[in-house]
Amino acid sequence: MKTITSNIDHSQFYKKVNFQLFLILLLMVACFFTWSENVVITRGIKVVGRMGVLFSSYLVYKKIINYGAVDNLKWNNVMSIFFYGTYLFLGFASFMWSTNVGYSALQWFMTTQTLVFCYYFVKCLFLLDKFFPEHPIRLYNLLGDACFVLLSIFVVGMWVNPDVFFRMTHGGEEARLGGYMMNPNELGMLAGVGVAGLIFDLRRNHKRWWTIFKLAVMFYALYATGSRSSLIGALLIIGFHVKQSSNAKLKILIITGMIVVAPVAIWKVVLKDGDTERLEEVMSMTGRLPFWTALINEGLPREPLLGFGFMRIDYKEYFQSTHTYPGKMTHNTFMQVLMNLGFIGITVIIFQMIFTFKGIAKENDEKRLMLYCILIPLIINSLTEFGIYGESNYGILFYQLIILYISFRDNHILSPAGRLYLKKRRPDLAV
């Protein structure tokens, strides 16, 4: 089925839908932050806010259909979404053996709720691509702008109210952007995703100087978080773009920027001004390596096949070995699954990721490059923090967007009812 639109102006519709998609994505990501130290307010934002945003994504989906589209999409790359569903099913089943059923259930429902949100959000983009092929709405632009707005709040806040927006670490010696509202490494990952999105705006010459300004704010925020892993991720994204780009001027601009920024950033953020004690800390990944060793040697043998239950890593609230710090989560998303759901769970997600990468590899050049670039900060963050299979966070949201973005394709056959509906709603559309 091919669709051809006549010269009817849909620009106002595009503007409204673009703003609505941007706003609900912004609010969805914002709902993962701890905006208040008051537990009741925080829970209200996370529960009521996220459900409201989910419902809003459904309303935008219905708005596009009512304006003139038919949801005749078919599933694509089904093994990727199948194994993700299997992972969630196993997590749900783990309520039967979880060491804290209430906590496991809360984490499972939040992860599932995010998946439903992504389902309708991605369908909106696919319906626009099919029935409004000339529309200017792009996922990378929505992601980049949403990340920019949130990070701008923190950049302004660090100057206006540093006590709130900075988190003191290493005995008060180091101030890192994030405060009580967000883990600095997670905030750095958000900056990486924003960079991945906005570089595509730069590639297509979309509001060039405004985009450069947004990227500068993003890198400044990334630097202020002090996140080594996120900085490495951002540099990898840039290098990946340089390698793929055929635009000589863009390559020169990006390489010049990296030559100026990278040495200072690496010396300050990764090497910590050459401080010997801090370099030793880097080598042990801030104590993570001994913690992971203890988990494998002491924790895993207790529940090797099915784990301790969804988002649980021990019989108690915290796992602690004789020579490690107490931890409620593993600071590695793959280790988290291994402890949560055992060897069965880790096998499921390995296959899930294999089919996800295979699905991405089949997409067109721009879409493939975009998805790989978004994956870079997510995968790096997954090695040291909550990650794509950890406790509920916006890294999961972004990964689910990627999974669903490769899970639909156009159905070339319209039902008679669909044809009649389009004839009524879209007389400008030749089907």
Automatic annotation (TrEMBL):
Pfam families: Wzy_C (PF04932). InterPro entries: O-antigen_ligase-rel_domated (IPR007016), WaaL-like (IPR051533). Its main location: membrane. It is found in: Membrane. The chain crosses the membrane at residues 17-35, 41-61, 81-99, 105-128, 140-160, 180-200, 212-240, 252-271, 291-313, 333-357, 369-390. Residues 215-349 form the O-antigen ligase-related domain. This is O-antigen ligase family protein.
